[in-house]
Amino acid sequence: MTVKPTLDDVKLVLSYTGKVVIGVAILLVIPMLTAVAAGEWDCLVYFALSLGISLSTGFLLAALGATDRKAGWMHGMVTGGLSWIVVMAVAALPYWFSGHYLSYLDAMFDVMSGFTTTGLVLIQDLDHVATSLNMWRHLLTFVGGQGVIVLALTFLVKDSGGGYKLYVGEGKDERLFPSVFHTAKAIWKISLAYLAVGTLALWIAGIAIGLPIGDAFLHGLWVYMAAWSTGGFSPMTQNILYYHSALYEGITVVFFILGSFNFALHNAVWSGNRKEIARNIETASFATTMSILTLVTCWGLMKLRVYPDLAALVRKGFYQLASAHTTTGFMTVYPRQLANEWGDLAVLAMIVAMLIGGSACSTAGGFKGLRVGIIWKALVQETRKLLKPGSAVFAQRFHYHGEKNLSESQVRSAALIVIMYVAIFFFATLAGCAAGYPFLESAFESASVTGNVGFSIGVTQAAMPAFLKIVYIFNMWAGRLEFMAVLATFAFIAAFFRRKPA
Amino acid sequence: MNNSNAARRCASRALLWAVLAFGILAAAGAEEVGAGPGRVGAKALIADPRSYDGREILFEGEAIGDPMRRGDHGWVNVLDADAALGVYAPLSDLDAMGVFGSSRAKGDLVLVRGIFHRACPDHGGDMDIHATSVTVVQQGHATPHPVDTLKLVLVPFSMTLAAGLYVVWRRREAANRKGSWLS
Fold first, then answer.
1. From the CA of B37, how many Å to the nearest CA of chain A?
2. Cβ A312–B124 below 8 Å, yes or no?
């Protein structure tokens, strides 16, 4: 039996959602300053109008929901789900005003793709997009990587108990510190420190490969933001292929792999516990699946003689696979090359990599290396049980920020999430096939949206049917929030509108 | 009668020979044209790269982004109606281009003549064109971006609305705090 939400429950959810919208609206100041610096007065006007509308929406929701109640789990989860939808609609305003989109749905698709760090785009004429709009695109993906609720928690939400519930509602559950506010601040501290290092590295590399100093800085900043948040956006349509540089590719690999690691792991290493890298179940799981899938990809490419030599094969094969596994979506090949040249084996390896994804509590998507590790440990335990006498009792242990015993509830929870990922993966694959795309291409694109990756095999285009865009938006949203917040949102809405039994 | 038949046969033979000769000449001419590089679009190159691999092609499009100079050669990315391709060209060709496509400009329209590589062995397997010549077909130009007057007028309205709603929100929060303190 579910409890019918009261008006006060709705008000509390609206209040928190309003605060998240206000947080995102304030971010519009950054592209506005960029527009002033670049002399893009037309852009400044549409960013200012977007700011006015966004703030009005945020203040209205916060005013409608003003209440002195404290948030429970239901409110945290529903706010997690709902705020991402409202923020998607609001953050799409500058996209729509820019005239680079064929419909408002396309603009919302790109916002959801940015916030969920997916990286697929429906934007038109990307190579002629204004500097300030590019700043907004990359800022969305950078903030989305840490989480829009983490942003609001850092500045706008003061209720610590409710704060943790909101934090979990966004698909994160690691507490780096006992206080959720300190955790949110630590996440930003880690990300901003890497932002300085990553931008500097890519800026220097950009100058070295021939970009002018100013453009080298902007490209460095944007590509870093997209790499760290495993977002995959780029200022040019050719994505990373635009730079024609092994150096640039190498630096992005370092930062998107770092971005796919758990914030708790970063925090442990920063605190001097470097051994955690080697012992952690997630890094072990990532290293294992990454190695196996790289071999499979390279074998598939070698069989078809796609590349002329080993150096080119490894450079292309490893880069795309690492980008897929960390759910980044940076590409150094054209989407149709994957469909026409790479062959089924390499494409299948990419699909598996995209579904697995990076680490829990990171900027990455997918069903996460932690769950793969837990399910693997459970399989080993079950197999060992079969080979031992029935009376034998033993515990399966794993290392995850300390030695832990594998419990049945952990295995059940991991399996449940994996099953749900696979279910929506099949759902979007089916939708792709229904829209007339071949099975393997539908499956590839579906894995990409479900795992918040951003690789495209050519399906994602402005010309694709509207229903497929909506299915992809749903999968990006559900995949990013890891289902609980999405299920809670639907249940909350259904229960609120349910008629009272007579 | 016989004379007129003979004349007709003679005329038809002459016509046949003329048609044959024209056909042979036309075929020879066509072969001559076909021997040169054909103009290919990015869509065809990406869709069927093996057919063009190692062949000389003509590729026309807009020079976009920044030219990237590396040693005595450099890269420029050229965008046609469907996609952009990397062109590796001598610096003299890069220097001939004046305007590169960006948010504020339409870049030079260039005609690239060069060897297409499906997976270039010199450049880590990139799909690219090694240019033998790059010709500017049409000069690029700045693109106007006028301010939208309607949006400009709406900005103060939206900001005033936001300020009003902010006051309402703070008042309602203050009232709630007071209410909860009293209770």
1. 23
2. yes
